[in-house]
User: Fold this.
Amino acid sequence: MGSRPACNVADRDALDEVFEMVRASMPPLRGVVHAAMVIDDGLISDLDAARIQKVFEPKVEGAMHLDAATRGLSLDFFVVFSSATTVFGNPGQASYVAANRFIEYLVEQRRAK
Assistant:
């Protein structure tokens, strides 16, 4: 079995390197599954920029980078995992709820294009 490329998808340069390696040495990419998450529970009044960024980085930035990197590809699927918290809310997970709603919007825009 060959090597399996890996990177932090929130790091666009690292993701671009992996995509270049995949293009050069593997069959065409047919799909993406993005299931990153960080939960840093806290009431919104207790959050600061660093805590929000810690949650947003893997889910939001990762999804944005994967979306951009795959826009021109003929994929069979592009799956991102959200949460029911975007419908019901959760007072202790404001950053997580917001990050999930953002990726839902990203996928809505992707489908529309």
